[in-house]
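Build the 3D complex.
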Amino acid sequence: MALKPLDIFKLLPKTNCKECGYPTCLAFSMQIAMGKEDLKKCPYISEEIREKLASASAPPIVTISIGKDEEKVSIGGETVLFRHEKTFYNPPAIGTFINDAMNQDEIEKIIKDSANFVYERVGVKMRTNVIAIIDTEKNRFLDIVQRAYPTKKSLMLMSKNVDLIEKAVNTCKDVNPIICSADKENWKEIGKIAKNFSVPIAAKGKDINELIELVGKLQSIGVNQILLFPETDNISKLFEILVCLRRKAILKRVKECGYPVITFLPDLKANNYIKEALYAAICIAKYSSVIILSELKGETLFPLMLARLNIFTDPQRPMATPEGIYEIGNPGNESPVLITSNFSLTYFIVSGEVENARVPAYLVVQDTEGLSVLTAWAADKLNAETIAGLIKKIKIEEKLKTKKLILPGVLAPILGELEEELPDWEILLGPREAAYLPNFLKNLPSSSE
Ligand code: SF4
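Done.
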């Protein structure tokens, strides 16, 4: 049973010191009760009280890690219904399936595509995260598991054969495979495997009541890594179940509903990959944690991953690129230096235009807390003093014979000041729009002129 804000408040120090970022202990306790804050933010809570409050502060949806090494991802762990209330934390794992009736070439292609579809956007690598393997009693299930295992992606092991599941889990347990799935008949037997190997298991049910009942049974034998797997071939019904599960978990704190949810899109029989991509987009926004597509196609996978990236970024914190020197096109000691802010979109637009110019250059990115150039200047986070300080700190002049610094055109008001701060540098005012950079850089007079 979740604690109420006043129950939590009674256990807090009540000094209203504001160190947690809230004006009062009561305000902090309300956030904890809603699962929106972390107890660690109050440095004055004793270990004993922390343990007491742990259940109240745990996210209403259990977090589960799947995959291994660089392929490891977390799913679940959400605390709100809507992104604008705080943020969504863990993007859904996306992948496709292999059926053991497929021929060898098809199987190899899916494994290869799952590993090779990697896109980079605003410094983030977007990739697939899971491969579902379906046993149709062709006696190839274990062989496919062994072949897919080196991808280090989590494997969703879909078989009705409990012995086979046990052998498969033993083969790939370190990628934290998802056993798929427990149902009314097999839950005890298959649940024990999940418990013994400490891997996640999917509970499959036709509606919320069936799911809740099955989760209760799995919990009763000590299984705690559970995923919910609604079984339907209808997108409206699926959508309704996804929303109801999330509402029950967040608003009513129904523990049996507080687990990540799998959607297996081939069951919906969209018969059209564009239509299926639309279904997948719905499931990304509301509220799937694992999404299995019928196939991986770049033209739908990339937009889906982009939608996932956009929905699962913190709306209160702009995406930022690390501060530092970025070399574009193998620059030398006479190459110009450009300066910009660390708002990721700004960085990618500017670096893209410098690449288009085919003029080797250094791009210096200043930490402006994710603000764009003009906003950072208005907020006094990007000015002559900060730029000069950064140029000196990173010692870029050690790479240069001629010191030529290009200032974004919108920073014209600080040109004179910057010249005073960096007397050894030639400061040039660049264009106001990044789109004009290629032309500007191509026509830059060389140092000998
Ligand atoms: S840091 Fe702790 S003691 Fe201080 S206001 Fe927040 S909850 Fe209260």
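The pocket of iron/sulfur cluster is lined by residues 12-13, 15-20, 22, 25, 28, 42, 44 (CB under 6 Å).
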